[in-house]
Design brief:
The protein is built from seven helices and two strands, in the order H-H-H-H-H-H-H-E-E. By secondary structure, the chain is mainly α. A two-stranded antiparallel sheet has the order 1-2.
Length: 191
């Protein structure tokens, strides 16, 4: 339905963005603490970019009237002007905004509509080292000097595939060199 005479959708959306800003600044994260200023900035930038897009296309209603059609058009326009990584991030930051709109105004969540396009990064297989290359590296570090044993151990630990944070959290007590199952390393979850 067209907007009523005298109605200013841009001012209405600006008011809604201010309400969203207050909400996101006071909303606890999944961990229970408040979002960092950088996270808040990113969430608000995404909502403002969407609002600017609606103004650009002369959308004459408030945010709660947005459907998946307008959201898909914004995502396509943003993708065309930026990159896949840019739209994936912006789209992810809009999820919170559309959840807030749905809760605040009791409307359908356009982000969760089955026809909303979700842009995703491709899941290309990570590059791996070949078996021959790994054997050559281990052979180079097979001498009995302290440095060679240290380097051999570090390479073998990295071949297990831990995150860097798990590697740096390792303690001597996490490594068992003897036992019925052979040498073992326990990596602690680190967040």
């Amino acid at each position: 339905a067209p907007a009523a005479r005298g109605y200013d959708p841009v001012a209405d959306r600006a008011q809604q963005l201010a309400m969203y800003a207050t909400y996101i600044e006071n909303k606890p994260s999944k961990r229970g603490d408040l979002f960092s200023p950088n996270s808040i900035r990113c969430y608000l930038e995404a909502a403002h970019a969407f609002g600017a897009y609606l103004t650009e296309i002369h959308y004459d209603q408030a945010f709660e009237s947005v459907t998946y059609v307008e959201l898909n058009a914004f995502c396509k326009a943003y993708y065309d002007a930026h990159s896949l990584g840019g739209i994936v991030t912006k789209q992810g930051n809009l999820r919170s905004f559309f959840t807030w709109l749905s809760d605040e105004f009791d409307v359908d969540n356009a982000y969760k509509h089955r026809k909303h396009w979700i842009y995703k990064r491709s899941q290309a297989s990570p590059a791996t080292l070949g078996d021959e290359f790994i054997l050559d590296i281990l052979k180079i570090t097979s001498a009995r000097s302290f440095e060679s044993l240290r380097d051999n151990c570090i390479i073998r630990l990295f071949l297990l595939g831990p995150r860097l944070s798990e590697m740096t959290a390792l303690q001597v007590s996490d490594i068992q060199l003897t036992g019925s199952d052979g040498p073992q390393v326990w990596f602690r979850p680190f967040k």
